[in-house]
Structures are given as C-alpha cells and as structure tokens.
Model the fold of this input.
Amino acid sequence: MELMERVREIGTGAALDEGRLDAARHALLREIAREERRDVAPARRRTAHWIGGSALAGGLAAGAMVIGLVAVPATAPTAAAEVLERAALASIRAAETDVPAGSYVRIGTAFTWATTYDEQMPEGARFNNAFRADAEAVLLIEDESTIYVPADPEGEWIRERVPYRIAEAVGPEAVQASEVWVREMGPATAGLAGISRYPAGIVEGGRDGDVVTYHLDGRETFADMPIEAEAVVAWFEERYGAEGEADGMAHFFIETMGDLMSFNLAPAHARAGMLRAFASLPGVEVVAREGEQTTLAYEQDFDAGPARVEFVLDTDRGYILQSTHWGMGEYDVPVAFAGVPDWQSRTVSTVSIVDAAP
Done:
C-alpha cells in the first residue's frame, strides 16, 4: 500500500486536502522512524482515547482527528492560564540559551502502559484482549528512548532506544504473564533497540517506495504556526478545517502534548503556541505545585465515560515532564487484585544538557 493510501485510509470519511495530508505524512513518518510501537503490541478490544505516548495517535490527529477543531473560548481558570502563559514564555527563553560547543540537549522519555493478560486467549493475543475485571495479570511495559540534539543543529543528531521491558508485573498469573510476554513479544521488541544517527536531524523514511525527508523536531509542520492562543486556533482552523465534533481541539492537544518526545523536541514557538491554546480548553485546572513544577489536569466526558489527563509542566523551561492518562469505559473498571495503578499510561521525560552522546 502506498504511503498516501495509508494516510487516506486512516482519515476515512474526512475530506483530506494536501495540507492535512502533509501534516499526516510527517506524523506517520516520524512514527515509522521509531519503528512504531503499535506494530508490536496487539490491538485492544476497544479503542481508548488519550493513551498518550504515540506520535501516530497524536500526530495523525492532524490528518484525521483535528478536523474537529473549533474556536474554544478562553474559559480556563486564571491560575491555569497564568501557569501556561509563564511556561510558554519560558519555552521561548529556553530556546535562546546557548548550548556549549560539543555538548548536546538530551531529551529522554520513558513511556509506560498497563497491559492486561488473559491466558484463555490464543497465542499472540493474550495481551490487551482482556477486560480489566477479567484480567489474570497486569504488566506495566516500558518503552524508553533518548534523543541527543547537538549544540550545532547542523551536526549529527542521535537517537538511542532500548527494547520494551516489563517494569512491573501484578496479579495471580504475574509470573506466567511475564514469561509469555518475553517469549511472544521479546523477539519483536528486541529489534527496536540500538543507536540511529541523523545528519542535521533529518530523517529519510517511507514505505512501499515512498521516500520523504523531514526533521526530527517537526519544524516543517510548525514553520508558520503563530504563538498567541487565538492565532494558534485560527491557524489550525485554516489548515485543517473547523467542521466536525466540538471536542476535536481537545483531542488534538491532549494526544499531541501527551507524546512528550515529540512535544519537547518541537520548536520553541510551537510549544509556546500549543501551551497557550491548551489554556483555552474549558476545564483545565491546576491541581498541584512544587517549585518550578506545576501539575495541570483536564477531564472530558464521553459516552463511554470520562477521560482524564494530568501534565507535570516545567514552568521555568516550558517542557512537559510527565503525562498521565486515565482511560474511559472498561479502563475505569478496577482489576480483581491490588497493586495496579489506576492510570492507563504514563510518560516521564527529562531534558538536560550533557557533554557527550553515544
């Protein structure tokens, strides 16, 4: 299947013009370059919103989901709006900080998600196919990746990735579930490990004969994106259209901001713009403060139940350091044993300057 056919298939039912396809193409190819985790993990029985951590889920919203963008009034609580504005300004300042020659900006992420285990299912389908109430074990699987951005952006960018690992196993069949995971999933995930090098941060990717080049930081997509909240909304409306569901904007920002590798790598003006636009969502609130870190929460009701996300924001630098997602419907149902976190997925990110890279 041609790449453009893949993009169009994902956007079935949407009127995708070349602007939407361009954004979707970049998002898809970013995920191809990361060996797209969904090729490894079996599909869930139902689709849950806001699982976070996936550029395909967040980035392809640009081509398929973001058509629901609407101009949402700036009704976020003052405290949240102030925090997000401070972080937006900080992201611009951080971009102006000189990185010493020979050093790197290191952006690391660890994405952890809870997967259920059902030994009654056939081989290859024992994970993510059990309702939480029926699960015999829950594994927390971690996917860790690091990108090193050189002080001279025209230099060599480096990505280091490790295979998926079992961070924790809980439940009466935890030992068996771990053994099955290693046997069934281990060989596939082992191929994800390794170091990749990208001159000037440029990736060349594609499938089925399609070759497209783009930058790891997504600068092509965000090149003309403004930074003021209303202007950001207008930019998306003009680029992707405003028809569709009224919560399309919420979907886009939750999914995109929740992919911390992509968000923290994005150009500073794009991060600032998205933070300001996020503040326009009604219901964004501050739930905790600790030094330069502020935790913001957003929740929305769906037919299947409420979905919630919490972001830990570094207000001094404009980065998101943690993203925690609670699913809806069956994902709100507790498992039959203790020790399982109530969240569905969590991503932790670190951003620092280091003297060397692998």
